[in-house]
Amino acid sequence: MSKTENKLTEGSITKTLVVFSLPFIGSFLLQALYSVVDLLIVSHFAGTYSISGLNIVAQLTDMVLCFAIGFLSGATVLIAQYLGAGKKEDMIKTIQTSFTFILMLGVIVTVVMLALVHPVLNLLQTPAESYQEAYRYYVVVMAGVIFIFMYNAIASILRGMGDSKHPMFFVLIATVSNIILDLIFVGGFQMGAGGAALATVIAQAFSVVISVIYLKKIDFPFDFRLSSFRIDRKTLRNLMRLGIPSAFQNTILNVSLVFLIGMANILGVYASAAVGIAAKINVIFILPNVALHSSLATIVGQNVGAGKLERGVKTVRLEFLISAGYSLIICAIMWFFSKELLQIFTNDPNTLQVGAQYFKGHCWDYFVVMPLAYCLGGLYIGTGHTMYVAIANLCGAVISRMPLAYVFSQLAGFGVLGIGIAYPISTTVTVTVYLIFLVMGKWKESTVEELR
What we know:
Helices cover about 80% and strands about 0% of the residues. The protein is built from 16 helices and no strands.
C-alpha cells in the first residue's frame, strides 16, 4: 500500500468517520476562505460595486467548478470501490483517465466561457454600476480555470484512495498564497475584483505545482509525464455513468443559486450585495455538512467494494446524528445573530437590513432536512447511484426552489425573505425523493461493471 492509500473498511466506524472527515472539514473550510478573504479584502478596499461584481461572477464560477467536481466525484467513488475490492490495475486506469479528461474539459470550458462573457453577464442581470468589476473578475478566473480543475482532480483522486490529509495541506498553501496576493493586488495596487481573481488563480496554480512535485516524489500511481495522459474507454464509461449525474446535480444546484442571485439583482444593488454576503456566510456554515457528505461517499464506496455494505450504512446513521446536532446550532445562530454575522463584511445599514431578512427565511433549511439530504446523498454517491442524487436535486433545486423564490420574492412581495424561504421548502422536496429511492432498495445493487 502506497503512502496515499488508506483502507476505510476496518476498525471502529466512529473513529474512521471522524479521523477521515476532520481533514475534509479543514480542506473545505480553507477552500471557503478563498472567496471569504476575497470578499473581505474587496469590501474594505474597493466598496459596494466591487462586492456586487465579485458576488455575481463568483456564483457563476462556482457553477462551472461544481460541474467538474461532480465528474470528479465519480472518480472518487470508482477509485474507492476499486481500492476496497483490491483492483489496483483498474484504479490506476481510473486515475489516468480522470486526469486526462479533466484537462481536456478545462481547455474547453476556458474557450467557451471567455467567448460568452458579455452574454452571460447580461443574462445574470448584472447591475450597470457593477458591470466593469464583474467583467474583470470573470475574465481572469475563466482564463485560469484549468489550474482550479487540476487541483480538484488531485484532491478527489487522493480522497478516493483514502488520503484526506494531503489535499488539506495543498489547499492550505493555496489559501495562504491567496491572502498575501489579495493584499498586494487589491489593497496595494487597488485592482478591485480583478485583483482578487488574479490572486485566486495564481494561488491555485502554485498549489498544483507543489502537489505535483510531492506526488512525483512518492509511490503515487501516476507520474504526470505527457505519455501517461491517456483515456481508457471502458473506464471512461464507468466514470461517465457515475460522474455525469453528479456533475448535472452540481450544475443544477448552482443554476438555481445563480437564478436566486438574479432575483436579488432585480431587487437592487443592496439586495445583490446582501444576498451575496449571506451566501458566503452560508458556505462557511454548510461546510462541515458538505465535508461529512463527501467523506461518507468515500467510506461507503470502499466498503461497497469490499462487500461490507452494512458497515457503510452504519456510517450513514452516525453521520446523520453528528450533522443534525451541528445544523440545529447553526439554525439558531442564523435566527438570533443575523445582523452580527453580516457585520463581519459590511456596516452599510441598508445591506444589513436586507441580509437579515434573508437569513430569517434561509436558516430553517438547517432544521433536520439538510442533514438528512446530505446523508442520503452521500449514501447514494458511495454506492454508485449518482442518478438518484441528480433526480432528487433536480426536483428540489430547479422544479421547486426556483419557482418558489420567484413567487415569494416577486409576486408575493416578500423580497429577499422570499428567496430565503424557498430553501427549506425545496430541500424538503429533495429529501422526499431520496426517501422514495431508499424504500425502493435498488441502491444496494452495484452500478460499476467490474464489481458486478
